[in-house]
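Please produce the structure of this protein holding FE2/S2 (inorganic) cluster.
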Amino acid sequence: MEHATHPPGNAGIAPFAFSEKALAECKEVITHYPAEHPKSALIPLLHIAQADNDGWLSVPAMDAVASLLGIQYVEVYEVATFYSMFHLEPVGKHVLDVCETAPCMLRGSDDLIEHLEHKLGIKAGQTTRDGLFTLRAVQCLGSCGTAPMLQCGAKYHEHLTIEKADRLIDALRAKESRTNFTDHIDTPA
Ligand code: FES
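Below is the modeled complex.
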């Protein structure tokens, strides 16, 4: 299959190859989708690739997904660049996405973001110097009824208070592994 050219500006990015475990996961996931529509498995495979690439999707990682599915590179790029859950730059071990849209804002998300900025010593959009946390202010995550909330990996932390956020940070600091969309963590609700 003829592939589109790579986007510019990716010279020097480390090559990527799926780990044996991740490749086995991908192959298993692919069996859940119709063989004639390989692109159907794209999003779960991107999650696996992201988890297997230290939490972000480099161009080589996206290309590996395209090759595995036998689809065009651009078909992967257009999906990976659309969803905020896919990270196109290196991120901290735990990405905290705090919703700042009106329902969450009315329930105190501004104070929550300000508290987390102060606690972590960074501004929203930045990563802590130790690489543990990336803090982002994001738009509605579809959990308005449980505002204010933040997402970390696949897990939603709802009805947040400053105290709950502090407990979450402590739990994540004690967690050895990276938080990925492919796992669920046992942290305070
Ligand atoms: S407004 Fe925050 S989840 Fe919808």
